[in-house]
Design a protein that fits this description.
The chain is α/β, with parallel strands linked by helices. It has helices at residues 21-29, 72-87, 103-114, 149-159, 177-193, 227-234, 239-256, 276-281; strands at 7-15, 47-53, 56-62, 90-95, 119-123, 139-140, 202-209, 215-224, 259-268.
Length: 285
C-alpha cells in the first residue's frame, strides 16, 4: 500500500479590496490572525497563516487588495501583491460576486498563467449572492459560514508540489506578537472611528512587556499625518481614544490569553505614508 505523498507550498490569496481574503484566512486557520473590517485596504503587508494537515502544510499569504494608486503607501501595497503573485506555488483569486469579474482580475489571471502558476478562481460570500455569471469560477464559498472552505483546502493540497513541512505543526504564523498586537489596535481604530477614520493611520508598538506572567503591558502609538486627524482619533474629552483602547484590549486579551494593560497615544507624523523608509520600519514592505 502506497502512502500519499506529503505536499507543501505557498498559497497566495489575491483579489480586490474587501473580496474576503482576510476573512478566509482566519476561517482556514480556525482563529483570528488578520484584520477584518467593512472598509477596503485594511491589509497592508504579507500575513502568513500556516495550515498543517497530516498530508500537507499550506502557507497561506493574505495580501492587500490590488488597485491603482500613485501614493507611496498604496504603491508599497501593490508591490506586495506583485511579489506574492510571482513567488507562490498556487494562487487563489477571490471574486466578490457583488462587483463581479473585471479587467484587473483577467490581467492577474493571465500573468499567473504565463508563469505556469496554478490558479483557482473562487467566488466569495456565497451565503449572500450567487457567483457572477461572467467569471470563470472554479469554486464558490462563504468564509463567514465556512461553506465550501474544506473543499477549497482539498483542491489546494492537490495542486501543491510534493515536499516536507516548513514549520512546526503547532505554529500558525511567522509574525511576531508585537506585529499582531499593532494590527489589533489598528483594527479597533478602524471600527471605532467608522466613516471618520483617516486612511493615513498606522500603529507602532513602543513597548511590549511580558515580564509579569499575570499581565502583559503594551504601549502603542497611533500615527496620523495631520493635527486635525489627531483630534478625530482622540475625540472630545478623549472619548474616542478610550473606545479604541477598550476594543483593542479585548482583542489583545483573547490573543494573549491573559490580562492586558494597554496605553495608547496619538502622534502627528507628517507624510509618513510617503516615506519609503518609514513604511518599511512599520512593516509595510
Amino acid at each position: 500500500m502506497n502512502e500519499r505523498p506529503h505536499r507543501s507550498g505557498v498559497v497566495a490569496l489575491l483579489g480586490r479590496p474587501n473580496a474576503g481574503k482576510s476573512t478566509l484566512l482566519n476561517r482556514l486557520l480556525g482563529q483570528k490572525l488578520a484584520i477584518v473590517t467593512a472598509k477596503p485596504q485594511t491589509t497592508r503587508s504579507r500575513i502568513l497563516g500556516i495550515v498543517t494537515r497530516e498530508d500537507a502544510q499550506l502557507l497561506l499569504l493574505d495580501t492587500p487588495g490590488f488597485h491603482a494608486s500613485e501614493k507611496a503607501l498604496n504603491r508599497a501595497l501593490i508591490e506586495v501583491v506583485d511579489d506574492v503573485a510571482q513567488d507562490c506555488d498556487v494562487a487563489v483569486l477571490l471574486v466578490d460576486p457583488r462587483h463581479g469579474w473585471d479587467e484587473a482580475h483577467e490581467a492577474l489571471r493571465e500573468r499567473l498563467r504565463a508563469r505556469h502558476t496554478p490558479c483557482l478562481v473562487v467566488s466569495t460570500k456565497a451565503d449572500l449572492r450567487a457567483p457572477p455569471e461572467d467569471a470563470p469560477i472554479d469554486l464558490a464559498l462563504s468564509a463567514r459560514t465556512g461553506e465550501g472552505t474544506r473543499g477549497l483546502v482539498d483542491r489546494l493540497v492537490e495542486l501543491l508540489p510534493e515536499g516536507p513541512a516548513f514549520y512546526d505543526p503547532e505554529q500558525v504564523t511567522d509574525r511576531s506578537l508585537r506585529f499582531l498586537a499593532a494590527e489589533l489596535v489598528r483594527e479597533a481604530a478602524f471600527e471605532a472611528l467608522s466613516q471618520e477614520i483617516p486612511y493615513e493611520t498606522a500603529v507602532e508598538i513602543e513597548s511590549f512587556d511580558e515580564s509579569d506572567p499575570r499581565v502583559t503591558r503594551i504601549r502603542a502609538t497611533l500615527l496620523v499625518e495631520k493635527k486635525s486627524q489627531k483630534g478625530m482619533v482622540v475625540g472630545k474629552g478623549g472619548r474616542m481614544i478610550r473606545e479604541i483602547g477598550i476594543q483593542a484590549r479585548r482583542g489583545l486579551e483573547e490573543l494573549l490569553e491573559k490580562q492586558v494593560h494597554l496605553e495608547l497615544w496619538v502622534k502627528v507624523e507628517p507624510r509618513w505614508t510617503k516615506r519609503p523608509n518609514r513604511l518599511k520600519s512599520l512593516g509595510y514592505h
